[in-house]
Structures are given as C-alpha cells and as structure tokens.
Amino acid sequence: MPSTELTTANGSGEHVVEGSASTSAKPQTKITLAGKVIAITGANRGIGLGVASSCLDNGADRVYSIDIGEVGDDFAAVQKKYPGKLHAIKADVTNEESATKAVDQIIVDAGAFHGMVINAGRTKHKPALDFTTEEINQLWSINLFGSFYCARVAARTFIKLGVKGSIVFTASMASYRPNKRVPSAPYGASKAGVRNMTHTLAMEWAQYNIRVNSVSPGLVNTAMTYWVPQQPDWEQQLKYYGGMPRLAEIEELGGAYVYLLSDAASYTTSIDIPVNGVVGIC
C-alpha cells in the first residue's frame, strides 16, 4: 500500500522527501558521457571494445579496458581515432585484488571514476552431460565470480569517492531461455546469475546512489559467434527465428550501455535491456 511521505524544505526552499537520495540538481535529459571516466572489463576486443568505442563517441573523457589478454589491431584503431582517450590495463578480473589494483591505477591516472561495465566473459556450448568440472569452473570463474568481484570493487570505489556511480553488467539472452541448437547449461546459469546480481546489488547499493543494470545481447557478430552463419541451414533458421534476420553488429549494442552509464538514467536501476532484434534464442 502507498505510504505517506514526510517532506521538508531544503536550503533552497525546495521540498525533499525525508530519507530519500533526492538532490536539488536538475535531472539530466541529454544522453552524454561528457567528462566521465569509464572502465570496461574485457574490452580489448569484441563487445567490450564496441562499447568502449560507443562511450567515446558519446563524449567519455577516458575509457579503460581491464583485460588479461593483449590488445590487437582493432584496439589500436580505436585508440588512433580517439588519441589519449582509450587505455588498456592488464588484470585478472577473477581475482578481486587484481581488479582492485586496476581500478586504483585508473584513479591515479585519471583522477576520477564514474562507471564500470562488467563485460569480461567466456562461453562454451556442449551438452550438460559432456561438461568437465574444469570447463564448468572456467565459465563460472569469469562469468559469475569475476562479475561479482568487479562489481564490489567498483562499488567500494564509488563509495570512497562519493560518486553516484553506474555499474552495467553484460548478461545474455541465454539467461532467459536456452538455445536448443547449441545448449550450454553452465553458461546460461552463469548469465542468469549475473541478472540476479543486477537486481540484488541495485537494491543493496541504492542507498549509496549507485545504479546497477545489465544488457542482454542476443546473437552478435564477434569472434565467438563465427560459426553461427556458417551453419548449412542458417537461412532456414532465420525464417523461424523471426525478428531481424541477421546477427547484431557490436556497435548496435553501445546505445544501451551509454544510456545506462549516463546521468540521463539517474533514476534507472535494477533493469535488464535485451538487445536482440527480436531474434532471441530458441
């Protein structure tokens, strides 16, 4: 049932709900990342790099990729397009201490920290009965445990800096329903866990003005999905999938992340945005 809210006048004469996180600042209506410092795990390539490019397209001051791998030509091309704005920090996101050191380095280098995209992950598709314990642990270590650790690192840093930070997880359409063509119970379970974390952490950290959301991509044209259009009956599959009959380009995901990272989303938390062209997974 609705509750009665007590209000009090603040110094400027405005009325503010007692106990709320309201401020007298005018809500931002323009979607922009101007002046913001963003960290993205697993952004040396693929979806993460596409999100990094989108952030820079929308005015981000600096973007840092936190990744255990090496950068390649694609990363260098984005660096060339945005001189001095895209940087790579080597770290193991499955190790909370390593992730903490990476974010600390960002603070030293940039003097600020406003948003974290928790994107690093891996996938493996095979029948549940064929998965080895090692393969399951590899998936959950980065997709689930690494995501949780990086979220805590970001939250602790936002609280320390007094920043109204934004955390955006990369979940997956596989967190909603299985892909019967290429099943992966451990992968789907890990991404479902990410979506649950989104809702739970959003609830816990709202008191610190930290927003937590996620994006669920469908089939995206990356190195991990090279096999999808190579299937002999791919064109036939698309007729039954419905929606947009193609894979998404990584740049088409960026808008969802940019919105959730921006101040235009200041009252948006605990949601997941599916970006799947209505193709979905079936």
TrEMBL record:
<comment type="similarity">
    <text>Belongs to the short-chain dehydrogenases/reductases (SDR) family.</text>
</comment>
<dbReference type="GO" id="GO:0016616">
    <property type="term" value="F:oxidoreductase activity, acting on the CH-OH group of donors, NAD or NADP as acceptor"/>
</dbReference>
<keyword id="KW-0521">NADP</keyword>
<protein>
    <submittedName>
        <fullName>Uncharacterized protein</fullName>
    </submittedName>
</protein>
<feature type="compositionally biased region" description="Polar residues">
    <location>
        <begin position="1"/>
        <end position="11"/>
    </location>
</feature>
<dbReference type="InterPro" id="IPR020904">
    <property type="entry name" value="Sc_DH/Rdtase_CS"/>
</dbReference>
<keyword id="KW-0560">Oxidoreductase</keyword>
<dbReference type="InterPro" id="IPR036291">
    <property type="entry name" value="NAD(P)-bd_dom_sf"/>
</dbReference>
<dbReference type="InterPro" id="IPR002347">
    <property type="entry name" value="SDR_fam"/>
</dbReference>
<dbReference type="GO" id="GO:0050664">
    <property type="term" value="F:oxidoreductase activity, acting on NAD(P)H, oxygen as acceptor"/>
</dbReference>
<dbReference type="Pfam" id="PF13561">
    <property type="entry name" value="adh_short_C2"/>
</dbReference>
<feature type="region of interest" description="Disordered">
    <location>
        <begin position="1"/>
        <end position="25"/>
    </location>
</feature>
